Amino acid sequence: MQIDIYYSYACRDSYLVYAWLKQVEKGGEPLNIHWHPFAIQMDDPNEHWNRSWVTANSELRGFIAAEAARRQGSEAFLRFHDALESAVHEQLLELGEESTLIAVTQQAGLDMDRFLADWHDLQLTQAVQRSHEQGSEKFNISGTPTLVFPNERSFHLELSEVPPVADALETFQVFETLALRLPYIKQLKRTN
């Protein structure tokens, strides 16, 4: 199944969904996930997209680095994405630090010279901006993670924790049923 996910490395909820879906895949559900950056830490939206690498906040730096990795192919991006999620949310390394991003790039096995040449390219920030604007305009996204299913129904999902391996696939199947087969639920929010 194809799922588009609007994410932020600065968002713990994005990480929880990422970790859950990794378990779903291990449980036998083939997923084709397309990751789309969506900024949640914009001080001034008018200036945010005009910042260079030097003046970008940590979230934008993470996105720029991910887009530099994406230039090396989809597999390279996925290796980088996995490594950066782990570095930030499991090892608790600082997202915007160059040392974190370089270590993640090395761990992902990317071409370091190409990566270092690309990550200062302003076109990468523009790619992140396009992704963010598409999410806002087309799917009315205002937070991460938001999952978009093949029928273009989108859901902002927050997990309290990563479901245990034994429950990961069943949790996904329930969510999939709500998203694809039962289009009647517009929003579901637990209040306690």
What does this structure look like?
There is one protein chain. With 192 residues, the chain is of the alpha+beta class. α3 (58-70) crosses α7 and α4 crosses α5 (98-107). The protein has one domain (2-181): Glutaredoxin (3-Layer(aba) Sandwich). Strands 2-1-3-4 form a four-stranded mixed sheet, with helices on one face. It is globular, with a radius of gyration of 17 Å. A hairpin with a 5-residue loop joins β3 and β4 (154-156). The protein is built from eight helices and four strands.
For the structure shown, list the relevant keywords:
single chain; 192 residues; alpha+beta; Glutaredoxin; four-stranded mixed β-sheet; 8 helices; 52% helix
Structure at a glance:
The chain is α+β, with helices and mostly antiparallel strands. It is built from eight helices and four strands, in the order E-H-E-H-H-H-H-H-H-E-E-H.
Q: Average pLDDT value?
A: 94
CATH topology: Glutaredoxin
Which blocks of ≥5 consecutive residues have pLDDT under 50? none
The largest sheet is: 4 strands, mixed
**Backbone structural class:** alpha+beta
Strand order of the largest sheet: 2-1-3-4
Number of strands: 4
The 3D shape can be described as globular
Please report the first level of CATH classification, the CATH class: Alpha Beta
Give the assembly state of these chains. Answer: single chain
The CATH architecture: 3-Layer(aba) Sandwich
